[in-house]
Amino acid sequence: xxxxxxxxxxxxxxxxxxxxxxxxxxxxxxxxxxxxxxxxxxxxxxxxxxxxxxxxxxxxxxxxxxxxxxxxxxxxxxxxxxxxxxxxxxxxxxxxxxxxxxxxxxxxxxxxxxxxxxxxxxxxxxxxxxxxxxxxxxxxxxxxxxxxxxxxxxxxxxxxxxxxxxxxxxxxxxxxxxxxxxxxxxxxxxxxxxxxxxxxxxxxxxxxxxxxxxxxxxxxxxxxxxxxxxxxxxxxxxxxxxxxxxxxxxxxxxxxxxxxxxxxxxxxxxxxxxxxxxxxxxxxxxxxxxxxxxxxxxxxxxxxxxxxxxxxxxxxxxxxxxxxxxxxx
Length: 329
Ligand code: ADP
Prior knowledge:
By secondary structure, the protein is an alpha+beta fold. The chain has nine helices and nine strands. The strands form three sheets. A five-stranded mixed beta sheet has the order 4-6-7-9-8. It has a two-stranded antiparallel ribbon with strand order 1-2.
């Protein structure tokens, strides 16, 4: 046992070791440990092949250890992200829910002021009260929209087989007044049966069609076309689930269109491209659409020709594993 200290030899003798081959397990230049081969039957000279084989094994162990550590760090990060997302959602829900009560109080006392002191205050005071009522009403709309935003994940229903055409028809029925008032024409063909949360699918269609009506061109009645097709390769390129087949839906309008540089911004919460005076709204509708589509494992984007119209596309995967995982999460 050449080159081995006396105490090491004594230790090996305890286990009847007659031949000993030791190679380091390296992990990014640091020695993580040793890989040792023992022979107890009789002493031996280790061949070059055996030494190299053991070293290669030790190298593979080093790589496997590094990968395991990376994986562990990634899992920890993902868990942390999921936890902070859940906290944020809970915060948004509690904040918007609990803000409703004091706001209701502000609104009712303002209305009381308006009623009780009608004709007794000067015009400036009346104007101030009207501004305050308007502000409170806007805040109520914002809070309600924020609540719907956070409810996409907190109150989502399990996915089931849904007739997309039926969901669309509910959305159209809900928008009947706006459709009649503007003379909008809504066209659609056959739509598929998909795995989805039925009421969220209706909400998605409804938000997109309501926008198509709201952002119409002056003196041009809205023409809205809804369709779906099994996704082709070029469409899959926009989707994160590249290998799974999916349904591509579109809602096309002939409205004011969107300048290309704003194509992504409009899906961010509270982002609007117009003042409230021209087109009312809170800037939450499309972020709700995005959240609904992402909850279903799909993606959403817009293609538009400014001044001529927009087409909103969204995908819903057919891959049931994605959906099952989502339900469990
Ligand atoms: P809101 O409708 O309350 O403004 P959204 O989140 O639904 O909020 O939309 C964000 C912005 O995207 C809108 O303010 C508008 O500028 C733009 N937008 C959405 N849909 C359309 C559309 N169909 N045509 C043109 N612009 C649109």
